[in-house]
Design brief:
By secondary structure, the protein is α/β, with parallel strands linked by helices. It is built from 17 helices and 17 strands. Helices cover 40% and strands 17% of the residues. The strands form 4 sheets. The chain has an 8-stranded parallel β-barrel, surrounded by 5 helices. Strands 13-15-14-16-17 form a 5-stranded mixed beta sheet, with helices on both faces. Bound molecules: iron/sulfur cluster. The site of iron/sulfur cluster has 13 residues, from helix 2.
Length: 444
Amino acid sequence: MALKALDIYKLLPKKNCKECGDPTCLTFAMKLAGGKADVDLCPYLDEQAKSVLGATTRPPIRLVKIGVGERTFGVGEESVLYRHEKTFYHPPGILFKVSDTQTPEEITRITLRVRDESFTRVGTDLRFNGIAIENTSGSAESFARAVATVEESADLPLVLAAKTTGALALALVQVGSYRPLIHAATRDNFKEMCALAKKHGCPMVIKAESLDTLASLAKDCTAEGAQKLVMDLSPRTLGDFLVKSTAIRQLAITRKAPELGYPVFLDTPATGLQDAAIALGIAKYASVIVTAPLSPASSKAALTLRQNIYTDPQKPIQMTPGLYRVGSPGKDAPVLMTVNFSLTFFTLEGYLESTRIPCFMLIVDTEGLSVLTSVAAGKLSETLVRDSLKKFGVENEVSHKTLIIPGYAAPLSGRIEEATGWKVMVGPRDAAEIGEYLHTEWKK
Ligand code: SF4
């Protein structure tokens, strides 16, 4: 159970020395209670107090970083079961799998695809995260060659999945300093795996079928000095994964089983239902997802789903308010006003581009709310439109005073005309109809 600030304060040394970066021990206690500081910042805490405080104030799921450099990503550090309770913070890394039985050309092609491919949605570039190299051959030399081929092609986060610790040791000679995730420590080999993880500072996957074995394995591995762990639940079916991953998330965030507070690994081809497994993994708590290279359709579906699930539900994605150009609009181009909810902006912009009619988009600040919501909430008003027209100098850009407003803002049309002195035309409710509307209704 989480400790309150005063209970935490009682355990602190109360020197008020500021070495933790806080002016007093009490403010530090308040930060700890809110999960915004780490107990290690106080150098005067004894080990017993540290372990009591650490167990209750650290994030219930440990943060694990994979890779180095520009494409590095962190997973874990989640604190809720459902995203509407707060938000999910760290989107799962999705890695394309290659095998050491593939030709160097095939391995390079897949690696370059992950390096270069990106898909832009609501103003964000979405990408896959790295490469998982599998030691299908069983040969340490073939595995090391495949790892070298990937490494020569791109600086991407890696998962190294070898059959033996010897094969891993050989591969780590080349890429050990790039913080790859090594797979996998089991009851049988965990001491050798921990030694490798410690030597190279790598995160490590632990693998077992039962939650009890995973918990005891996690304890043994941390005792061996391997702290950065990810858990492979060895699911036999998708249902099995769902049951185990949900149980782990519940036990971890309620701190009933802190030894299960690590991110979860999912090898989707092993389930036999790859696309479904990716969707399930994204929605239900997988943090590292390995997949065979995906088709364009499956790629877009996976990246879109991940973006949606990991968007903060309390903060709509927003555009900066302003006057945007579609094409090269002249003085007689139409001006379309809408809100700064990103999805509205990019949807409308896409349809406007396809009309091939150059125009202006006047984006007003509704704090990211959609048209319908902002009208209902009173955020979209005639004064906002009037001030925005002035602020962004729209009169200087066009030779007319006609403003097209969204169909859902029709109740405001009269008030906007009065407040601005502009003639208001009510556009369609559905952005898909804007092309037809402009071709038929727009008059200079
Ligand atoms: Fe108090 Fe420790 Fe911070 Fe010093 S470092 S102010 S003793 S909490």
